[in-house]
Amino acid sequence: MADPRLYQIGVLSGLLVYGMAGLDFEITVPRAVLLLGTVLATQALCDRIDGPRPVNWKSALISGLSLCLLLRTNRPGLAVLAAVVTIAAKFLFRIHRKHLFNPTNGGIVAMLLLTDQVWVSPGQWGSVAFFGFLMACLGGLVVNRASRSDVTYAFIAAYCALIFGRSLYLGEPMTIPVHRLQSGALLLFTFFMISDPKTTPDSRAGRVLFAALVAFSAWYVQFRLFRTNGLLWSLAAWSMAVPLIDRLLPGTRYTWTTQSLPQQTVVRTTPSTEGARDRSWGWGPTTS
Amino acid sequence: MRRLLLSAALVSIVAWSTPTLSGFCGFYVCKADSKLFNQASQVVLVRDGDRTVLTMVNDFQGSPKEFAVVVPVPTFLKREQIHVGDKALVDHLDAYSAPRLVEYHDDDPCRMTTAEAFAAAAPVPMLMKQARDEGRRRSLGVTIEATYTVGEYDILILSAKESAGLEIWLRENGYRIPAGASEVLASYLKQNVRFFVAKVNLKEQAKLGFTYLRPLQVAFESPKFMLPLRLGMVNANGPQDLIVYTLTRRGRVETTNYRTVKLPSDMDLPVYLKDRGEFAKFYKAMFTRQVEKHDGRVVFTEYAWDMRWCDPCAADPLSGDELRNLGVFWQDGAASQAPNVYLTRLHVRYDGAHFPEDLVFQETPDRSNFQGRFVLRHPFTGTAACDAAATYRRSVWDRQQQEAQRLASLTGWSLAEIRTKMRLGDPPPVEPAAWWQRIWKN
Asked: Using the beta-carbon criterion (under 8 Å), do B294 and A23 form an inter-chain contact?
């Protein structure tokens, strides 16, 4: 596939349309247009200021679609702010040419911290949406043969072990952990957020450690502290430790062959090079 | 042997109230309250921060000596944290938030009048045997952490080392524990849950003079915003209905581990639903069909509204005193003012196959209003002989046809039967007046 991001955009768009039409997602068409328009405009502006370079519309669209799927607010102004923060944070919080937070994750967590007028509805997914989305995500994993999917595998393994482990310890029927894992939000997180190559550690050991830490903290927030959005809080918190993990567990950086080039040069690569870069980056929103 | 009701909440007793308010958007006609649903438990959850007040309503119909309830609670409860409430408050809450039927009357098509006739809406009709042997109890690993008598109830707060011991102790003390409860008890015990066990103290009940069982209320502080369903499903005979009223400060409450869906609302339906019992039949059928449509895996929102007003009102909003008695512990304005409370009414039909885990909630900042509201539009029945009348009659027929189809689709009822009940015949012909008739018309 030339660019896995197109596949991702297709999957997320399909999910959004189904969610709005069939699952009563609390997002209207004008709101979705507003969010997507704002992420694209912000991306264009930031690329111009930081570049100049072509607008990285695919990454912005992935972030925007993820926001549409997850973020809820009754105030259009806050939706616009969330979209601006999501994109702008990529350019503002960068260490060693990597941005610190996955854009959607950073945007939502920032909005949850800044205002008490936004929320995430983790229970909004139906089983049809879940299984459809699961197939699409697994399909993407196979199609793109992403080398950076190790973080996804590590996260799934750790999170499932914790969820099933707790239920086994408590003597709960296995229908309970299975039900807990049937969440579209969990899939979005696993395949579109934590796998973001721009924010995960460079080395494989670092990525596996990172995934395990995120999984444990998310589980702890959800099942020990009994708070919602454990996944989002956990990823945002551990993202800040990535520079440290990179220092302690430096990678061979084989996946960052183009990283010696300045950031803007990377974006201007030809489609074939860009495709190669994306494959090396794996199944995640290849934002820059 | 006493009959044990293993449930988070108990079946409600609901009395009809007599609301007499008319609303701005249509005249309130009648409502479909929790009484419609047999075996519908009602629970009121008042929550702000980690503070929770849980009110459990029951309409247990048997002999009081047969009554017992076992509820998992997240913390130890002191005597002062337990209260016996007034069921009239929950009845009022039910009446206020019930799905409602409103009606409009078409104007004379021949008169260009914008005045809308307002009329008053019609008033419309919601123990305990001592542990037989201290040594035995200890050997079973069951600890009675506290014993209280509150109102007409004898209450025990139990903790246990293992579920088997707890199950045996409960059985030996006259509780009819269903088979399979042990595993559920075990999983709760491992989470350091206490068990709140209540029975009726017959002497106290006689002294107090109540002929029915009043709701039990408990106040506790816990990060867990949830409702345990699993114990209640152990011996359940088919799906059960549960109505959860949440009273919160910020906004609407939804479930985080199940989909929360708003029930169909704000639609025109045939006017015969005003006839006695018809609206209730409609609402039950519609609810059942919605449950099936969503594969029995969703929680429905029936009402979500700022409690300081309503439109149209099925009953007056609850007063500040009533809210405080239900457990609303915060006060935003002057003491005389009703506190800022947002009510969410959730209705779930659950069974073990579709609801494997307990309900977990979250409070959102969403303060947009939602109510179950169904509209009846009465056609103009006076004599109308103008040109517009024929067009009007045809538009009424088209409208009624759509209402019939909508009702059939919402309930699964036969369209032919609905049309018969509506006395909906063939469409009236639309004959445009001849050109000469229009010249010299009066």
From this structure: no
* B200 touches B154 (CB < 8 A): yes
Q: Is the minimum CB–CB distance between B261 and chain A shorter than 8 Å?
A: yes
| DSSP for B303-324, written as a single string | EEEETT--SS-SSPPPPHHHHH
With a cut of 60, say whether residue A40 has pLDDT above it: yes
Domain layout of chain A by residue ranges: 4-270
Contact B357, A163 (CB under 8 A): no
Q: What is the largest CA-CA distance in chain A?
A: 59
Across chain A, the runs of DSSP E, i.e. the strands, are 71-73, 94-95, 98-99, 118-120
Q: Which of A118, A123, A225 sits opposite B255 (nearest CB)?
A: A123
Name residues 357-416 of chain B within 8 A of A (Cβ).
357, 362, 364-368
- CA distances (Å), origin A31, targets A73, A107, A117, A185, A189: 10, 16, 16, 20, 22
Interface probe with B: pick from A25, A71, A75, A119, most Cβ of B within 10 Å: A119
Q: Contact, B31 vs B95, CB < 8 A?
A: yes
- B296 touching chain A per CB within 8 A: no
Residue A56, pLDDT above cutoff 90? no
CB count, 10 Å around CB of B336? 7
Interchain CB distance below 8 Å, B250 and A116: yes
- In angstroms, the CA B246 to CA B236 distance is 24
pLDDT tens digit sequence for B291-314: 999 999 999 999 999 988 888 888
What is the Cα A277 distance to its own chain's centre?
Answer: 18
A256: nearest Cα among A212, A222, A288: A288
Residues of B in contact with A124 (CB under 8 A): 259-260
Whether the CB-CB separation of B251 and A26 falls below 8 Å is answered with no
Of A119, A171, A227, the CB nearest to B364: A119
Which of the four pLDDT bands, split at 50, 70 and 90, describes residue A144? low
Other Cβ atoms less than 10 A from the Cβ of A43: the count is 28
pLDDT band at A125 (very low <50, low <70, confident <90, very high): confident
pLDDT score, position B39:
63
* ipTM of predicted complex: 0.82
| CATH class, range A4-270 | mainly alpha
Higher pLDDT, B88 or B337: B88
Q: Give the pLDDT of residue B362.
A: 95
Q: Which of B190, B224, B255 sits opposite A169 (nearest CB)?
A: B190
- Is B362's CB within 8 Å of A170's CB? no
- Tell me which residue of B258, B228, B230, B227 sits closest to B245, measured CA to CA: B227
Backbone φ and ψ of B303, nearest 5°: -160, 140
Question: Which of A263, A149, A253, A249 lies closest to A205, judged by CA?
Answer: A249
CB contact under 8 A, A176 and B183: no
Q: How far apart are CA A286 and CA A280, in angstroms?
A: 10
| Burial of residue B429, with CB atoms counted within 10 A of its CB: 0-12 exposed, 13-18 middle, 19 or more buried | exposed
A140-154, B12-26, B148-162: least confidently modelled range: B12-26
pLDDT bucket at B20, cuts 50 / 70 / 90: very low
Confidence at residue B127, expressed as pLDDT on a 0 to 100 scale: 34
Q: What is the pLDDT of residue A150?
A: 86
A236-262 pLDDT per residue, tens: 999 999 889 988 988 755 343 333 333
B345-354 pLDDT, tens per residue? 999 999 888 9
